[in-house]
Amino acid sequence: MITAHRKWLLTGSIACATLSISAQMVVAEVSNGPDVIAMSANIDNDTFSRASLRLGTREPYWMAVFDTLIHLAPDTTLNPGLATKWVWNNANTALTLTLREAIKFTDGAPFNSEAVRANLLALRDGGGENAFMLANLTDVEIKSPTEVVLRLSAPDPALLESLASVAGAMASPASIGSANAASRPVGSGAYILDTEESVPGRQYVYRRNSDYWDVASIDFNTLTITPISDLSARLNALRSGQIDTALADATVVAEAKRSDLTVTTFPVDWEGILIADRNGKMLPALADRRVRQAINLAFDKGSILKYMRSGLGKETSQIFSADATAYVSGLDSAYGFDVKRARTLMAEAGYGDGFTLTMPELRLFAAFTPVITQMLADIGIRVNWVSIAPTEAIAELQSGKYPMFVTRLAAQTSWSDIRRVVASDASWNTSRSQDDELNKLIDKAQHTLHEEERAKTYKDINKWLVDQAWFAPWYRVDTVVLTNKEVILNPRPWSVAPSVQYFKAKH
User: Fold this and answer.
1) Contacting residues for 323 by C-beta, under 8 A, at least 6 apart
2) Is the pLDDT of residue 255 over 60?
């Protein structure tokens, strides 16, 4: 039940966020047309450098140019890409790849085992945010020009999926680490970046690669990606025909439908509070499980989802997606909205008078600030907010300075989420929290050779995380992609920004 005051907070926050949007004129250098797919992005590309490729909204920029060793179908099936076959050894510590023959990069260099080795080591040793994907890679053994063995220090249950993503992206070896690698990608993928026509920050233009091994799958001769940070401007550009597709959110769904646009929604991210300091190094109160559980109970998830995301999502208390092996349906409702129970837990933990903590205030979540402040205040937790510049957001959140913070994180495969968010050395385990019982479960999941046993262990990890309240998720929020009537989208799993491979021409 939402109180009148809380409803005012929520609707007021939305109004402030809406008023802050001002439409901008979008001018494309290369116009849309029958043989063009004109995409937009909500953020500019920052690099094509092999070691620094990113997931999320920057995926479409590089996936058009760099083909991957394995391809990921919309139904999560793994299909041959630049690797035509893959075989594990009995211990799951060596993966043998058979490579596609007669493939060349667009600079004329051959795609072969040497190229695979150069790319994998560049990511592993390059210090990028996705280097974790190859953290267990100890060697890349070349058996022949078309056969390579990836040797691991320990099993990696998510390696195949990683090879369909950043880990498997293949750039010409000569371009890796070159002076212009960040701006002039050289791949063997479906498209070639037209560096003469492209203007960073305004529009990226890609031309069809006529030598691509699966050229028949390419429906468009030209791809353009126009960065448009303003949602109103993206919507206007889509309605006017300047672009064919745009990332959006729940605030414009009704308007998009009135404009006869196609609205595709699918869950990728969870949104809520990441309780980082579970060991209480900065704030001793957070080391108490009862306090963390109280934080979970303090949030009126249904009202936040309704008023902040127009109801597009599903309430949850777990960080794993519904299609992950670790998912347990009953855990979605583990923590309801119960302020009375939360206050009791705070008192039992010795914090009946509450405490004060510092949280980073991010522009992306500015509308949530008064809501979080009030709901935590209702159980005695007082928040001091520190403003963070958008350009520094990720670095600040991962710095370990903050005991907890609001976030929106993508859910991927069970093992990927464990390695990225849960494990003691995970990039989003910002306080390096750990627990002996959890560590044993993670080790068991990694080393078991039986899929059924691994699946059970994943679920045990999930149950432990929810019981210990390491996180305080509110809901799995739906990603919203708008398209016109000229293209059809089949979304890429675990990606908030579908790349060109997942679009087809309607006619």
Assistant:
1) 76, 493
2) yes
